[in-house]
Amino acid sequence: MTRMVKGANVPAPVEPLQIAVCRAKAPGAPVVDVSALLVAADGRVRGDADLVFGNQPHHPSGAARHLGRAPDDGGPLVADWLWLDLAGIEPGVDRVVVAASADGGPFGRVPGLDIRVTTMTGAPVAYFGVDDATTETAFVLGEFYRHRGGWKFRAVGQGWTTGLHGLATDFGVEVADTDPSPDSAPAAHGPAVSPPRPAPAAPATRPAAPAHGPAGAAQVASPSSAGAHTGGPAPAVDGAGVTRDGAGFGPDFVPFVRKGNAHKTFAVPRTVPAGPALLQVELEDDAGRVQVKLLGASGDRGEELWRGDRNRIRARFLVQVPEDRPLRLGIRASRWWTVKLVPVSHAEPFTGHAHGHDFDVLRYDGPADDLHYRVDATDGADAAFGLGAVFPGEDPMTPRPAPAPEAAGGTATGVVRLPGPALLQVRGRAFWSLNAASGPPVLAEYGSGRRAGAPVEIVNPLPGSPVILEYHLAEGPTSRFYEATETDEYGQERALLFAHRDGMRGRVLLFTDGRAATRVRIRSVARWALRLLPPESARPLVEGVRGKGTDVLVHRGGASVVTLTGSAGRAPYYRVEAGAADAIAPAPVLEAAGSRPARGPVPGEPGVPAYVTVRCGGMGWTLGLTEADGPRRFAESVEGHGYEVVHYTGRPGEARVECGEDGPVELWLLDKHFAPDRRIAAGPGRHEIQPGPVQVRGLGRWRITVGG
């Protein structure tokens, strides 16, 4: 990694990042505390919650976390860690500032101060060393800032002599008076922020590797469970001693990731603490005969977790990391595989509905409830199903068998009782679904069985209302090219799902046209499962909502503008559609490729539900939401890139539309409810324009000039 100089900048990938603020160990050196400030365009925080530090370790958006200090691994450095997901940063935040304060002396007495930024896989992003500190007691080491639809990191190196109190005040944080009385307990490091907001659940992905410095720089350890919550409030605890994020089931730690090919045996590093953990195994297409084993101390014996002949596997298992030795694993496969060992708190939360067709672990944090299960084991000779439960403090390797049958070769349904919080170990080689009695009802379920490729008749259980179709398709040799279609009573087909756009599992709306029944055909997929859910099952569309793949959300706030920010990495395709419950068909809101934000109108009236469908083949996304008066206003000229909503404030006249090399754009006038009214331009040229909101549809650059 190249050393940065003060003022230099580098591009920052729009994905989860880990930031380490490091310094050399030295007797009598000041204590350093690290913080992050999420700053608006005016250079100030929007509220006290935008300061993330030891006493307030989670930002309400979930996009920034203070992970605490890494444990002492005997090396020469001390490191404090932050976790940052740039894709999840709210639209109102312009910069994320990484700062530090010194207690017990100035930064001139802190040797080897630097900041290191890496991706979750440990790939280097930035390194900046501070070598000119003198009397400063607070420092801004670097900042992430928006740049042309993306993000950059700048090496700042600016100091304050007034400590974190002065630095935070300059950025607009309301800092309470923390002078203690003689009889009071000493205050924790950092300013007292009033009032602290509730901390959200931990992000789905946590730092996976230590940061690396340039050649010759000392390496630092990642934070462990002890450091992950240092200085933060204790997690809220429900009954039976289980935290609401599942941490009561096992220790927290930095996830371990290992990738390989063919046959391998290996030991998990001892940085993974003893106790329950979640083992996730992913295998590529055409994996062939696969075996996953937990090996003994000598590596030649052990317990078999999985054996099968499958095209693609993504399975999760509960394992116990031994106290007296490393955990050893054995993988036998003919293709590439990935193994992840993560805290049990990373298990998928069971919130009322779940389905799958592999081994899985679900985390239930609720009160006592009845659990309805359905198993379709008619699609293969090796089909089987079993269900076990692990309660707090129990050995995860011996889950209590739930009174659900070991289904094999048929269809089974039933009900089991959950007395409270538990981990559910699903042992499935068949399509299975779980539904809590207290959750929204499942209206109907359909399985492929032995009818692969044949159409299935689906009847609307809520005549006159749309329903949510939840789909789960098994991966196979041809599944990457699958297509699902609807056929009406006249034999006309229309597309429902596409592989590249909708992925192998997700949710879409069905019966938006008011029909009482439809026929669905799924091609190029041998096994699938469908469920019909009431529209009330849709998640609410709120500012900062995040998701993955294809999903349905509901908005009741009237006409608005939605901003979609996609995941970084390979350039996925996103499409967002929206419409009222009685709309004949949803209107296109926006399309996007890659991580560049795109904006589009969500039509509606206050209190009337509008359903928004985000379509993306398995990639992550974040939605921002602004009111109808939020679009950029222009009277003469405006330009942009991709889908956008603007507001023309001039007089009726002629506008010149210019397009970049990425293709033409269309202009649509919107009515007062932000629904498309009429198209006024299709491609470059001169077109009539009227005052009011205008939607720009296109993936490339564009410019609108009135009267020019």
Automatic annotation (TrEMBL):
At the top level, the lineage of the source is Bacteria
Please give the residue ranges the record annotates as the region Disordered: 174-243
Q: Domain TerD, which positions?
A: 29-171
Compositionally biased intervals (Low complexity): 202-222, 231-242
Stored PANTHER family? CAMP-BINDING PROTEIN 1-RELATED, GENERAL STRESS PROTEIN 16U
Q: Which family does it belong to?
A: Belongs to the CAPAB/TerDEXZ family.
Please give the name of this protein: TerD domain-containing protein
**Organism whose genome encodes this protein:** Streptomyces pristinaespiralis
